[in-house]
Specification:
The structure is a single chain. This protein has one helix and six strands; from the N terminus they run E-E-E-E-H-E-E. The protein has a six-stranded antiparallel β-sheet with strand order 1-6-2-3-4-5, with no helix packed on it. Strand 2 (16-21) and strand 3 (27-35) form a beta hairpin. It has one helix spanning 45-48; strands at residues 3-4, 16-21, 27-35, 38-40, 53-54, 58-63.
Length: 70
């Protein structure tokens, strides 16, 4: 279930799926983490420190579902 960032934010460094608006106002999803007010495509902040997703472009997030058992 998608959760609005206005309703609740994920814990810092928890890997989630998030929905964001691009500069051309399209909507895209990616897997990553939030640290304070920035969102990152990878949970390795050192990899993405130069290029976080700005908090005002992220609109929703959801937990990653459990992996299949087989």
């Amino acid at each position: 279930k998608w959760i609005s960032i206005k309703e609740r934010l994920p814990e810092n460094s928890k890997k989630v799926i998030f929905l964001y608006k691009t500069d051309s106002n399209n909507r895209e999803i990616t897997v990553g983490c939030r640290y304070d007010n920035n969102w990152y495509h990878s949970c390795l902040v050192s990899v993405n420190i130069e290029n976080p997703y700005s908090h005002d472009k992220v609109t929703h997030w959801m937990s990653i579902p459990e992996y299949p058992k087989d």
